Amino acid sequence: MERSKPAEKSRLGRGLSSLIPPSARPITATAEEPPKTAPTAEAVPAAPENPQDAVQRLAVTSIRANTFQPRDSFDDAALEDLSNSISAHGILQPIMVRASGKGKYELVAGERRFRAAKRAGLETVPAIVRELTDEESLTVALIENIQREDLNAIEAAKGYRQLLDQFGLTQTELARQLGKAQPTIANALRLLKLDLEMQQSISHGQMSEEHGKALLSLQNEDQRFKLWEKVIANQLSVAETRRLAMKISQDADAEEAPVAPARDVHWIALEDRLRTAFGMKVGLRPSPKGGGTLTIEFSDPEEVEGILDRIR
Fold first, then answer.
1. Is there a single domain that holds both residue 14 and residue 89?
2. Contact 175, 165 (CB under 8 A)
3. 71 in the same domain as 208
4. Cα separation of 82 and 120, whole Å?
5. DSSP string, 276-308
6. Residue 215 CB: number of other CB atoms within 10 A?
7. pLDDT tens digits, one per residue of 195-235
8. pLDDT at 263
9. Catalytic residue numbers?
10. Distance CA 3, CA 5 (A)
11. By residue range, what is the domain housing residue 108?
12. Residue 309 belongs to a domain
């Protein structure tokens, strides 16, 4: 995989959070809620020490949406609530933009606030203008959404994949920069191996990320598709989905090797724990003499690298 330019990599080495000025960082998950003594619509944070972090008011018409926004959808009811709050109390936290031409800007962080402000009829919004590359713009947008837990599992996975591809980072490096465990990144990326319809089921809340992981335990795409249809049609729980996936796998193994002995529930539980820890398909085959074989299936070198980092 091709690496990013040294200058860009060194900037990221200081930590991705350094790209976000303090006044534009998410405060809490409910940062949009007005305080007990709400400021007026013109209230913005005090001038920062770094001139780059100075807040200025920009015309709404001069700002376009973020090309690298990792979110695919926004809850309309939540936007309406935020719009009403902004109408009453103003924007409590400035958005972040980058210049995209003379007098024109591209949104980097704060898209919910920006959309709600436009809905509320505001003509200007408080903003911080930063010099950011395309990669850094994507990173800041992803960080903001992750910190607010606004992304669904598929949106987060697509964001991780973009960062890995564009920065040339390993999963371990990305996990460190985002403050995540490497298996979290690996498990999220595995969801992108699901059929598009299955990914949409997760994005739309018809099934969870854990359902997706259970489906991925089936290597046969026809079996996976049939199980997915059952999950959606019968609203199966994660536990039910896992049991069915395991039964389908065992039945398929039995057809290929009918003389294989029945598996002990203890080994099945250990296999499941290993699968969760490594974020990929794991097989345990005990032998009559007390030993056994551990197999780990991987799809790319990054997954192997992630395993090595976990066991060091």
1. yes
2. no
3. no
4. 9
5. HHHTS-EEEEE-TTS-EEEEE--SSHHHHHHHH
6. 26
7. 999 999 999 999 999 999 999 999 899 999 999 999 999 99
8. 62
9. 111
10. 7
11. 6-151
12. no
